[in-house]
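dumping the sequnces here before i forget
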Amino acid sequence: MLLLNASGCLDALIAPDTARQLDGFVTKTVTPLPREGNPPVRIAETEVGMLNSIGLANPGRDRFLAETLPRLRELGLPLWVSVGGFSAQDYAETCALLEDVTVELNLSCPNVDEAPEPAAEIVAACREATELPLYAKLSPAAWDIGEVARAVEAAGADGLSLVNTIRGLALDARTLQPVLGCAVGGYSGPALRPIALAAVFACRRVTDLPIVGMGGVSTGRDALDLVAAGATAVALGTVCFSDPDAPARVRAELAAELRDRGYASADDACGVGHASQVELESSAAKSPAK
Ligand SMILES: Cc1cc2nc3c(=O)[nH]c(=O)nc-3n(C[C@H](O)[C@H](O)[C@H](O)COP(=O)(O)O)c2cc1C
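..and the predicted 3d for all of it:
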């Protein structure tokens, strides 16, 4: 099972030792033009998670391709490039310029205006533009995320990344005004875990695509839960800000959790969380209709 970082939560050029603990490095989302991001304050801590309104700050596609990507290649890790944009054409044009990477389409940033096209249309445009593996990163805010998963699969996605942050707000205790400059930000960390689990669980019920599970993972047990729900890979986000050894630690803890439960590998545990539901459904199907 692959252990990755979550996009935007680790700078491999600043923390190469953390990045080398991973099976692949996922870049910060890159957009066609450079972006300074949103006004400060852009990060706020809450009791059980973190709010950010970074707003996809990045050097833009041209500088990314000319400067950042060659330096990242020196790490010797498989690279995943997170691609963002404000129209299907933006996404597709960036995909067409990439080589020898996995592409993660950020279809779900809560901190910037969305492209007008639905996720499946963006995936279809990118599918035409590249033969590289395409992962669609979805928002947990979708009412029926299984439906979105089916649509992006039909449009040509090779995998799903689940989930991005969800919108949240923190008010200053004294002024009762929003802490973040943009008021609302993306909520990540421990509180996102049950939401991420539900999203992975729902998508695994409707598709066999590989799924990168993420959202609040900080221990091997958290990773095991995502695997049991159906994730084939796990990504670490907010935990990387507080623990530079998180990838190695979570990997070791996951191995111990698997061993204690008698699984030879994470692949053996993938999707086991669905067993009771499958049993219920098959006994419901066998019982005579009332
Ligand atoms: C500071 C910060 C920046 C992020 N930037 C991006 C980004 O550029 N692209 C993206 O797809 N997700 C971004 N995310 C979302 C993470 O990749 C991940 O989906 C989310 O934080 C849930 O995982 P976690 O709870 O383990 O952090 C960002 C998250 C944080 C906290």
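The first helix runs from residue 16 to 19.
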